[in-house]
Amino acid sequence: MYLTRVIYCSELSGANKDAISDILSVSRRNNAKASISGMLLFNGTFFLQCLEGSRNAVNETYHRIMRDERHCHPVLLAYEAIAQRDFGDWDTAYVPWTSDVRKIIRLFSIDEEFNPYQLSGESAISLFRALRGHLPNSEHWSKPLQQA
Ligand SMILES: Cc1cc2nc3c(=O)[nH]c(=O)nc-3n(C[C@H](O)[C@H](O)[C@H](O)COP(=O)(O)O)c2cc1C
Questions:
Q1: Domains contained in the chain, CATH given
Q2: Which of 10, 36, 90, 95 could form a disulfide with 31 if both were Cys (CB 3.0 to 4.6 A apart)?
Q3: Atom 7 in ligand 1: residue holding the nearest Cα
Q4: Per-residue pLDDT tens for 90-136?
């Protein structure tokens, strides 16, 4: 079974911003079971998510997420077979919207506002890799796979 990576972005729909904690707890539970790793970035308006794992697991999860009415206007930024995981230590690392994170995001942005719809797939994965080193080591924000 091929290792596969998907990156998409979307926009919060009518759902409350607090929906993020429900989304995260379900994602961590399901993704750990399906051996999916990845990262989720949310700035209060836009989502940017990377999912990596077996092709079947990533496809099933992606299609389930696409049916979720808590977000809208999804755009697939990247879908590819990968030789190895980038986020193997994490089930669903959630990137907090800190000033450090904003500084990194600015490097990948056209203007001050973060808009994932302006990212190519290549720059989205570079952004995730840059963010990887800046995740706070906190249970609340991100949980290593082995502790799931
Ligand atoms: C932006 C966003 C990201 C999500 N990411 C994941 C995810 O990585 N894994 C997952 O299982 N569900 C994710 N979900 C939730 C799914 O859409 C769906 O509600 C959930 O998988 C249903 O799980 P259940 O059948 O176990 O209740 C996400 C939802 C949204 C809106």
A1: 3-147 (3.30.70.100)
A2: 36
A3: 27
A4: 778 888 888 889 999 999 998 888 999 999 999 999 999 999 887 76
